[in-house]
Amino acid sequence: MLKVGLTGSIAVGKSYVCQVFKNLGALVLDADETAREVVKPYTEGWHKIVEAFGKDILQEDGSINRAKLGEIVFSDEKKRALLNSITHPLIIKAQNEWLRNCEISDPNAIAIIDAALMIESGSYKRFDKLIVVWCKPEIQLQRLMQRNKLSKQEALKRISTQMSQEEKKKYADFLIDTSDGFESTHKQVVQVFQKLKECVSKK
What we know:
This protein has helices at residues 14-24, 31-37, 44-53, 66-74, 77-105, 118-121, 137-148, 152-160, 165-169, 182-202, and strands at 2-7, 27-30, 110-114, 129-134, 174-177. By secondary structure, the protein is an alpha/beta fold. The protein has one domain: Rossmann fold (3-Layer(aba) Sandwich). The chain has a 5-stranded parallel beta sheet, sandwiched between helices. The protein is globular, with a radius of gyration of 17 Å.
């Protein structure tokens, strides 16, 4: 089985790229989905986060208010590091379990894990190949402002908390540029998928 990491900064189009890979037959795990799973009410992650950030971040049903927590951690580097130190080990454990299950069900599979902080956390080293999704900075800014209904200043602040796109690109085995929209991105994903299939056949 080929283990592939997929990463990229905020609002560069990773979700669309993952959807195309899925449609082509790859097995894809969304990191956001895993991040939600590991902090579901009354799980180990949930208890640790409540202990660290207080009950004010909870919604009426007991679940974590991600928007409220996001506001706290995006404006405080220490708190962001604290949150990451709680969630990252749990996310990686869940991802490793998913990879094991993929290999059991299909030894020739292409298994892709999408995670925004894969390079920063060093967890990209577990993969055979790394895909970095990127787009022009002005397009990223525009997308983030529209998607999260943020002011330009708020959006720039969120972007600045992450490793720069140029830095991330240095780690890539494959690059996918989403700047020119869906059609161009789709073509690039198909090309990368063909190359990944060649890697599987060589294993």
